[in-house]
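[recover] target loaded
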C-alpha cells in the first residue's frame, strides 16, 4: 500500500458534509486508500475501525453517513461490506497493477491481523470461563464457601496448567471422586481433609484421583507415598 497512490482532490475542501464531520472525512480517505483501481473495495467493521483509527462502530456509522451523502454506495453480506466510491473516475487516474496488488496485499495482512487478535481474545475468554467453571465445580462438590476459599491468581494458574495437560473431564472426575472419599474428607488419624490445591498439584495427582474406582472403601494403604508426604 505504501508504494501505491491515490489522488486526493482539493474539491474535498468544498464538501460541506465532510467539513463538518471530521470522522466521516477520515473514514472516506481510508476508503479511498483501500479501494482498487476501479474505486471498489470491501471491509469488515473491525478492519475499517483499525485502519481509520476510530472505534469499529463509530467508523461504520461514519460510512453510513457517507452513503447517505452519496459519496459511496454499499452492498453487504454476512461478513463484509462492499463499497464503491462515487465519481471515482472523475478524480482518479488508473492505478498500476503493481500498486493495486500492493493495496490488496496490505489489506489482507491487516484483516488477518485483526482476525488473529480477535481469535486470541476468544481463546483467553474461553480459558477464563473454564478456570472459573472448575473452581465452581470444586466449591459445590466440597460444599465450600467461596469467600473463605478464594480463586487466587496462583490457583488460576494451576488450574490452567491442569486443564492443559489433564483436560476438564479428567479434572472434574478427580474432584468428584475426592469429594466422595471419606479418607480425603477427614476420616483419617490426622483429621486431614483434601482441598483443591491438593487435587491439582500435578498431572499425575489428577490422573490417580480420577481413576479411583471405589472411594468409599479407600484406606490409608491405598494412598501413595507422595500423597502421605503432602499430608505430613
Amino acid at each position: 500500500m505504501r508504494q501505491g497512490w491515490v489522488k486526493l482532490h482539493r474539491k474535498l475542501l468544498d464538501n460541506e458534509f465532510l467539513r463538518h464531520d471530521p470522522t466521516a472525512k477520515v473514514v472516506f480517505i481510508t476508503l479511498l486508500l483501500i479501494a482498487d483501481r476501479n474505486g471498489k473495495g470491501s471491509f469488515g467493521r473491525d478492519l475499517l475501525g483499525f485502519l481509520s483509527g476510530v472505534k469499529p462502530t463509530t467508523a461504520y456509522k461514519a460510512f453510513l453517513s457517507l452513503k447517505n451523502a452519496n459519496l459511496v454506495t454499499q452492498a453487504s453480506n454476512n461478513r463484509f461490506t462492499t463499497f464503491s466510491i462515487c465519481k471515482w473516475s472523475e478524480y482518479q487516474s488508473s492505478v498500476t497493477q503493481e500498486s493495486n496488488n500492493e493495496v490488496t496485499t496490505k489489506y489482507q495482512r491487516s484483516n488477518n491481523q485483526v482476525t488473529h487478535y480477535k481469535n486470541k481474545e476468544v481463546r483467553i475468554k474461553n480459558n477464563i470461563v473454564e478456570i472459573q467453571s472448575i473452581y465452581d465445580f470444586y466449591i459445590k462438590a466440597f460444599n465450600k464457601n467461596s469467600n473463605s476459599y478464594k480463586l487466587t491468581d496462583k490457583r488460576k494458574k494451576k488450574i490452567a496448567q491442569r486443564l492443559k495437560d489433564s483436560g476438564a473431564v479428567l479434572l472434574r472426575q478427580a474432584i468428584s471422586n475426592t469429594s466422595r472419599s471419606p479418607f480425603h474428607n477427614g476420616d483419617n488419624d490426622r483429621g486431614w481433609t483434601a482441598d483443591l490445591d491438593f487435587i491439582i498439584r500435578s498431572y499425575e495427582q489428577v490422573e490417580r484421583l480420577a481413576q479411583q474406582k471405589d472411594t468409599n472403601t479407600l484406606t490409608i494403604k491405598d494412598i501413595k507415598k507422595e500423597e502421605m508426604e503432602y499430608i505430613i
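[recover] notes: The first strand starts at residue 40 and ends at 43.
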